[in-house]
Amino acid sequence: MSTETILVLGGSFAGIGAAHYTLRHTIPQLPKKQGTTYIVTLVNPSKDFYWRIAGPRAAVSKDLIPRAKYLYPIEPAFAYAKGKFNFVQGSATHIDTAGQTVSVTTASGQQQSIPYVALIIATGVTTPSSLFTNSADLESTYDEFQKSLLTAKHVVVGGGGPVGVETAGEIAEALNGKPSFLSSKPKNPRCRVTLICADKKMLPILREAISLTAEKYLSRLGVEVMYNTKIVSAQPTGDGNTVVQLGDGKTIEADLYVDATGVRPNSSFLPKELLDTRNRVASNPHTLRVDAAGPRVYVVGDVGSYTRGGVMDLADAIPVAMTNLKTDLTAYITGKAPGPDRHYTANMKEQQIAPIGTGKGVGAMMGWKLPSFMVWFIKGRDYMIGMLAVPTVNGDGFKKEGKWKPQQAVGQQGLSRG
Prior knowledge:
By secondary structure, the protein is of the alpha/beta class. The protein has 9 helices and 21 strands. It has helices at residues 13-26, 55-58, 67-70, 138-149, 162-176, 208-221, 314-334, 372-380, 385-394, and strands at residues 2-9, 36-44, 48-50, 71-73, 85-96, 101-106, 111-115, 118-121, 125-126, 154-158, 192-196, 223-226, 231-236, 242-246, 251-254, 256-259, 264-265, 297-299, 352-356, 360-365, 368-369. The strands form 6 sheets. Strands 7-6-5-2-1-8-18 form a 7-stranded mixed sheet, with helices on one face. A hairpin with a 4-residue loop joins strand 6 and strand 7.
């Protein structure tokens, strides 16, 4: 009896979803091959899934979002797949595409070489601030940050995207309180909060009118927004503060600095020929195969070149990649030409929501502007923990495979796939 491994690298939103989809829909539909079984092995540096969406509020208040609401153990979520699922706590360090193996350093420091029949790269991204990236020290990082907030008089947040906007709002409300109904700014703010945006507006996916509304809500909490201002560096001082160097040569000294200026793809273990100019995994934008990596290698999530990023995109991307995985594995098992491909189409509609404090927010869904109370209802109440956290970990969103129509003549592309 031999075992073939479908290897998933990454245990965040993309990796968790891909593993569940493969166990529920891909493996059960594969042709039977005498003496061969298929398992899913998931590799992730942490034993816990991190609900990164809640990072801006969890970082600021353990009362509003305690540890049990942002960290969830991974292995129990796959209890239904006993004997078909294997979890390895560790980090991928090298991929041998010719030999179809991935080298992994486990949490205990041991070296493993894991062979694969199919590989799904879902390693995601790392944020510049440790406040928004899962690590063994995340809980103590939050404790230290919250302790520092108690005495902070000036907090600078770098980055005008959702994480920066949300974090600035959470900090300002926690320190300055909720504004009264008619006030435009806090009467006696305890802390000055500055949000620095490199662009001419915040929340770049959203229209300018929505960005201006976000600025109004932030102002009511005591947040000052600086536009068209790049951050060159942020250097700690001897007294525990941080000096933020701006692109125009000016500096700002802050008690605390939160870097929410962007993300870095977790792709350093991959050879350069598999990456694009942004160090994301270069993939076929339609099939999500990593063609340069050889047969049966796919990418899903923010580490891939095909996407502009975001959790919501995974509902479209994971079924595509995993359906094509099933098609390719079927051809591998039977020796017949692969069937038609399933194609991914990026959803480029205006779609982003950003809570601002615990009572307000801005955003749009499917191109439609949302009123503030809807942003609060969808995300602002608890950053979607009650609605989606456990179902995401358990893979409930992929219980059904979903219907799709093969694209005409696409199957001809697969004749050379092995």
